[in-house]
Write a structure and sequence with these properties.
It is built from 12 helices and 20 strands. It is of the alpha/beta class and 423 residues long. A 10-stranded mixed sheet has the order 9-7-5-2-10-1-11-15-19-20, sandwiched between helices. Strands 14, 16, 17 and 18 form a 4-stranded mixed sheet that branches. A hairpin with a 2-residue loop joins strand 3 and strand 4. Bound molecules: guanosine-5'-diphosphate and magnesium ion.
């Protein structure tokens, strides 16, 4: 059974929370794209954890976790993350964590280049997390990447680093007029953190293909959401990788498989971190109240997230792009304080009512068409059955299900593992 858990919106929908919940009976959890530019928060009986690179299955003793070839990995950050979890009693060994030898290493010069470019852009910046993600994915496709497997090839590593650093300095020194990067420093960085990471590196495609053959239960964990996908998202305010379920087999190392189930995670309202068009955005007191109620501050960066009304146009589109079979709605409890619930039911683009998600300047010009539903005004965090929910909350769920045309299977009413309703 191959299941993908993916974001339908702009990210931070609660994917980590749902992977933690639904991985109970899984054999393997794989992260297939992205790097440490986002955070997945998991709250369970062991406490609260924020994971940037490690798959969320790492908190389950019986699950083997894979970091796939589609990822970009900052080894220094990974070492820190492993250390943090280990110090809290989580066991991480080559038996429960496997890192693809094809994953590309996010180097210190990628992080540097990310900052240099955001500085250069000033008020035209993209809102990068400055974790080196766009520079490292660019290098992957320029074929100037250093891959995890390269650090196992001692004999040729030094020369590889030298060649690539020379190339990178053309831009760092020549273009940005910044201080050049030293090949020695980069080599030493690779040696230092590589020593700790080496035991985890293998051809994870072999492992996963065998797992597929043995009919193991495999869960593919996405980072970010459909609207951040490099092809289908709000380009150029996207991330630099494919966040969609269709990429899961490729980014994991099992490109020939077909997913059995795609579970899309949708937030009961909208949130969006960083720059870019965000049509259903709320402002002023209304936004502050929702941000506070939802604790909408970036898990990786601490940045306040922009918040908005539930967006039918964007969410419908997200479901289509992801090919979602069923939906988990999260953070419904956060909206309990609202007397009236705003919903963006369509866009107005140049006076025309639009339901298909637009791109480019048409999206920039889109204005939200808002309708209101009645709030329920009572705490729902202890509800465990659909019928426990107040009628207004049920109406809201039913409205969304109809509007997005995809079955809602789970409703999350709290961050804790068991705070959910199965429909
Ligand atoms: P991810 O990036 O999709 O994994 O999501 P994040 O972890 O960045 O953001 C989701 C936040 O909401 C986390 O702090 C979760 O602990 C929290 N969360 C998830 N589901 C619920 C829910 O149903 N109710 C509440 N109140 N919080 C939730
Ligand atoms: Mg997140």
């Amino acid at each position: 059974m191959l299941t993908a858990i993916v974001g339908i919106n702009w990210g931070d929908e609660g994917k980590g929370r749902m992977v933690d919940l639904l991985s109970e009976n899984q054999d393997v959890v794989v992260r297939y794209q992205g790097g440490n530019n986002a955070g997945h928060t998991v709250v369970n009986e062991l406490g609260k954890f924020v994971l940037n690179l490690l798959p969320s299955g790492i908190l389950r003793e019986n699950v083997i976790n894979v970091m796939g070839n589609g990822m970009v990995i900052d080894m220094e950050h990974l070492c820190g993350e492993i250390e943090k979890l280990t110090s809290r009693g989580i066991k991480i060994t080559p038996d429960n964590l496997k890192i693809s030898d094809r994953a590309v290493i996010c180097m210190p010069y990628h992080v540097l280049l990310d900052s240099l470019e955001e500085e250069r852009l000033k008020d035209k910046k993209y809102g990068s997390t400055k974790r080196g993600i766009a520079p490292v994915y660019s290098d992957k496709y320029l074929k100037k990447g250093i891959r995890m497997g390269d650090i196992l090839d001692e004999a040729t590593l030094r020369e590889k680093v030298e060649d690539i650093v020379n190339y990178k300095n053309l831009l760092i020194e020549g273009g940005y007029k910044a201080e050049s990067v030293k090949a020695d420093d980069m080599y030493n960085w690779l040696k230092k953190f590589g020593e700790l990471i080496k035991p985890f590196i293998s051809d994870t495609g072999v492992f996963l293909n065998n797992a597929v053959k043995e009919n193991k239960k495999i869960m593919f964990e996405a980072q970010l959401g459909a609207l951040r996908d490099i092809d289908f998202g709000i380009y150029p305010y996207t991330t630099s990788s494919s966040t969609i379920a269709a990429y899961a087999p490729i980014g994991s190392g099992v490109p020939g498989v077909k997913l059995d189930k795609i579970i899309g995670i949708v937030k009961a309202y909208s949130s969006c971190v960083g720059e870019g068009p965000f049509t259903s955005e709320l402002f002023g007191d209304e936004a502050d109240a929702l941000r506070e109620a939802g604790g909408e501050y970036g898990a990786a960066t601490g940045r306040p997230r922009r918040v908005g009304a539930f967006d039918v146009v964007a969410t419908r589109y997200g479901c289509i792009v992801q090919g979602a079979d069923e939906i988990a709605i999260t953070k419904l409890d956060v909206m309990s304080y609202m007397k009236q619930i705003p919903i963006c039911v369509a866009y107005d683009v140049d006076g025309e009512r639009v339901m298909d998600f637009p791109i480019g300047d048409r999206l920039n010009r889109a204005k939200p068409i808002i309708e209101y539903m009645e709030g329920w005004g009572t705490d729902i965090s202890n509800c465990r059955k659909f019928t426990d929910l107040p009628q207004q909350a049920r109406d809201y769920i039913i409205f969304i299900e109809k509007a997005i045309g995809t079955k809602i299977k789970y409703v999350s009413v709290g961050a804790d593992r068991d705070a959910y309703i199965e429909l």
